[in-house]
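Quick one: structure for this chain?
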Amino acid sequence: MRSPSLYHPVTIGSVTVEGNIFLAPLAGYTDRAFRTMCKWYGASFTYSEMVSAEGIARGGKNSDELMVRSENEEQFSIQLFMSDAEVVARALPRVLLFNPTVIDVNCGCPVPKVVKTGAGSSLLVEPKKIFNIVKTIVDGCDVPVSVKIRLGWDMQSINYEETAGAALSAGASMITMHARTKSMGYAGKADWQALADLKRFVSSSYPSVPVFGSGDLFSAEAAKEMLETTRIDGVMFARGAIGNPFIFQDTITLLETNTTSSFHDIEERIAAMRTQLELHSAIVGERLACRQMRKHAAAYLKGMSHSTKAKQELVQASSIADYEEVFKWLSEEHR
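Got it. Here's what it folds into:
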């Protein structure tokens, strides 16, 4: 039986999404082919890779490519990173040409090359900039705006209520928090108690605004625990979905029936890898797809017997035929 308190539709401004199990934006991973896979396996909603607002404003071809949705993404969010409102004002007209369902503002990326430009986590120390960026988008279009934040810059400057408050007062329709600081990066343990506190804070003044959580979600069971213990409105899988697009359906099944079948054998994993590779090849070409697929393949094979040798072979793979040889060998070894 479905538990409406755990798996349920979500309203983001004027948009209703049928479920609350999302794929987070993840630079270098959540390309069209991978998002297609995640949608097939039950992701309620998906986000583009992080896109530079400056690159969009300048008409960059690579930026445009990142904003294209896949055929099965009826709803889709474009995530932008920028240093200030002036940049997003210049980028917004072009963003709207790609008809996003939601526009997401990245205020959490801890990667040095992003932070040093004044974007990503740098915005956490300047809540007024977050307000101005969100207000510029809200005033410039009818597309709902979501904002992704972190706890703060470091443990001495935890300010997620202030940054969330700035976004909300500017008109944001959704808040997502990765429950780590910028300084933590992806290390250490995510602070799920802070997610519960953020949900209470947001609900006190903006009861209709959903709060989503991210951080340490590597299984359906973890997602269920986060929802139960924090009472947030939904979860975003990021690293936990890489090589494991099955995690969305596994989570929905667990939330609906309190049972899960999270084991996916080598044949299922090979089938998913093959499909993702073929999809990506159709978009970027075979040679580039084969190179970019290596990191995904390594994740698909994590924990499987004979994976070490397979990964070594795939590092050299430059064609779909090369991948098929490895797939055939793996299949035979697991019989």
